[in-house]
Structure formats: C-alpha cells, structure tokens
From TrEMBL:
This is FAD-binding FR-type domain-containing protein. The chain crosses the membrane at residues 56-81, 102-122, 134-154, 161-178, 184-206. Residues 413-422 have a biased composition (Basic and acidic residues). Residues 433-446, 456-467 have a biased composition (Low complexity). Its main location: membrane. It is found in: Membrane. One of its GO terms (cellular component) is plasma membrane. Keywords: Membrane, Oxidoreductase, Transmembrane, Transmembrane helix. Residues 205-375 form the FAD-binding FR-type domain. Residues 412-467 are annotated as: Disordered. It is a multi-pass membrane protein. One of its GO terms (molecular function) is oxidoreductase activity.
Amino acid sequence: MGELSLVQIALIVAHFIAIGLGYALLMAGAQSGGPSAAEAEAVNRHSEIKPSVGQLQWRVVLGMGPFAAGSISILFLPILRSRWYTILTGIPFERRIVIHRIFARLFVGLMLVHGVGVLVLSEFEGLAFPSHNSAGLIAMLLFLFVAATAIEPIRRAHFDFFFRSHYVFIAALVATFFHAPLITILACAPVFVWGCVALLRVALVLRNRTTLVSCRTLPGDVTELVLARDGFHAEPGQYVFIGDPLLGWELHPFTVSNYAPRGGTDLRPAGTMRFLIKAAALGPKPREWTSQLYNAVAAWEATGAASDSSSESSFNSQAAHLSGSQRRTLAARGDAPLHMRFEVLVSGGIGVTPNAALLEALLAPDGPYGRPDKIVFVWSSRGADPFATWFPHLLAAAADDDSVELELYDTSVHTKSDDSPSRLRSRRIHPDSSSSAGSSPSSSASEEQEARRRATSSSSSSSEDGYSSAVSVSTSLCDSLDVRGGRPDIGSLLAELPERAGVFVCGPMALVDATVAACSEFGHHVHTESFLF
C-alpha cells in the first residue's frame, strides 16, 4: 500500500467528516426539538433529585445519538467495492478500509456516550422509559459484539468468524429502527446504496464467467492459478477478488502476479492472468481459504487427474469468481515512482508478486511504463526453490537482459560473522516446463520432493567479506542464477546508485521499514505495497 501524504490524508478525512456532519445535523433536526415527553419528564425529575445532573448533561448525552447514527452512514461509504467508485474518489479499497475503521471507532465512542450516558444519568431507570430504550440497549450490545469481533487479534486469527459476525449489524440496525425510526431511515441511506452495489457486484460476477485455465501447487506452499475472462484488464500493482465455487462464495483479494495481454514471458495465452497464492497455515482441516485451496489442488494432483486433460475431475475449465480491480493503475497514481532512469524492485517472499508483474511490464517492448536505463530486482526468499519455480521464464529473461541486475537471497542460509566463508549447498532444480497456462503438472507432491532430493548437489562460493555466499541454481531455462545466502543489505545497495531512483518494495514489514528508511537517507522515491487490510 503506497504512502499517503499529509495533504491527501487531510483531504480524505475532511471529505468524510463533512459528509458525516451533514448527516448528523440532518438527523438532529429530525428529532423535532429533542427528547420525547417521557424522557423530558425523566430529565426534569432527575434534575430535581440530583442537581448536578442538569438539562445540559442530558442534552449532550441524548444529542450523541444522531451523531452516532451519522457515523453509521459514513461507515458504509468507504467499503463500497466498486471499480468506478475507486476511480471517482482516487482512493484504493485498502486505504478506504482504514477510513472505515476510523469511523467505526468514532461510532462506537459516540454510541457508548449516548447509551451508557442515558443509563448512568437515569440511574438505570432509562430502561423504564415508555419509549424505545430497550431496543436501543439491544442495538448497542449487538454493535459492541460486531466491534469486539473486529479487533486485530481476532480478525487475523479467525478471519472467517470476523467476516460472518459482521453481518450481525443487520440485526443491530433493525433494533436501532425500533429505537429511533426516523433517524435510522436517514442513516441507512448509504447502507441502501452499499447493498445495491453489493448485489450488482454479485450479479456481474455470476454473469461474467471467469475460466480457470490451469492450477497447480508450487514449492513454498503456493498455489498457482491462471484465469481468463473476456474483456477483463488488470495492470501491475492492481489486485482483484477471487472466489472458487467449490470452496464457497466468499471473494478474497490477490495481487495480479503476471498479466499477458498479448502473451506472457512464460508462454501463457493472451488475455490470461496468473496468481500465486500463499497458503496461510496448512493442516488436515485448515480454516484459511488459501490453505483450503492449496489442499484441494494438491489432492487433485495426487489423484493423477492433472496428467489427464480429459478427466472429469480436472480443475481445468472450471468456473471461477472474479471481481474487478480495486486500485488505480500505477500510472494513474501520482505517488508511484515510474518513468525514472533507475528502478529498484525489492521483494520478500510472496511479496514478489506485484514486483514480478511490474518487472514483466518494464521488460515488455511496448510496456505501459517505458523502459528505464537500469532495473535492480532484489528478491529474498526462505529457500532457493521459489527462484526456479515461481517465475522461471521471467528471471531467465531478466538474466539475459543487460539492463537488469538480479539480486537473489536465500534467507534460510544463516551466514557467519567470523572470517571463515559460509557454505551454501547448491541445488540443481529443474522447473516443470508446464508453467505455461495450457499445461498441468504431471507429478504428485511426493514425486516432486523425491526429484528434488535426487537433484541436490554441493558447490558454493563466498563473497570477500564473508557476509553472503552464492549458489548456482541451474534450470533448463536459465544457465545460472547467483543466489546469495543471508539477507540483502538494502542500505548499501541503494547507496551505490548514481542518482535518485524509483523504489518499489513489498514483503515483510521489517524489509519494508528498512527500505523506506534507506530511501529517506539517500533521497530515493519509494512506493510500498502491503497485503494487509
């Protein structure tokens, strides 16, 4: 996710606050003079009993209700998942999620001031008001349940539970309607728009058939999907929402790893998109969708159906669900450091996917971003297998290009700080030539592991300072790729550049933070990507 400037943040917050205040004032006017007669009588009664609790305190507490309802309406504007809304606002979906959380916290705060304040000031006799306070208490408890299940530890560890529990807000809105009908109707206007957009999106997803051209598992607990849909277009840096009917109707966001409008470097058919999806946590019965997908594809491979294109159990030609890109292109975003003489792409693990798509676009003769004088592609991974299997054709093309400098690091190899050179076992990994979209893997997972064991041989070389050592990873597509042990020294790499460069980084936060710090020190223009929502 790219960095927001202070001006952009101010404009975004001011935009939504203005809408929120407008709704809150409209709803406050809808109250027609304040509390009901019964509530006003209670206010007067408690003001006489407790002089410290006067009209002002009650009006402040009761006045928080319309403002809380106004923040409800704003909650749904940022999460409108529409490509046209993204283009109109210029704010990508993952940034609007942050705005959604800000207003959610604001709503919870206002709701607690209103609900708890009424109970405290009335000494918990507020429930006896001959009005709708019981419904209000039920609504408050339901909204608190939704908020509690959305805290980060629960959201990260039990996303499915978090996602489904969010729909409790429908029951909470119903209870709110019985508490304050007119205010709820006004507040639900954006909710109605959100519901219409959601239904339209579902209809478009079902209408526009997306074909699963091929799928297979790759080393590193990664699933490769190649999808095709007529009239669909995505560029580097964009992500789309993908769903598999066999695993449920929920859509999940994934970055476009390669896009081939005229055929890709890995010989995929024109108009196809390739996705590499990392399994979160494997097990016999995983909860994560990414792990379920990996297990399903691995089971399909183990049955031998992968080698039989006519098999009825084949995944090929299965329908998939694909929702439109939720981010403007890099060229349309003013913060992306494109069209510079030096471009540096820094990746860690599966974070290579957006940078691989960008590298493919930069190497294309008629690419959308032009051709820089120098491209430095830095990729660190736990193990050497991803270098030979995830993007073999792309790395082979980059290795043959004099304008590209490849910096590949195997972080599973721990380097030594003493003078003795660190040793790194070399692997001779032969990637499956079926990485093209129209092919399928012909060996099971166990056969692949056995092939890797047979292919292992030892040879190494070390750098002069003993910090890293190189390994020759030979493939049928690329004679030699120098893979170093340890982690990249981003600061030293950026310090050697002769002029200001454009830097794209995606990966673990430690790598992103180190790259951003180095860019700040040496004056490079940095753009960050994140998979976190």
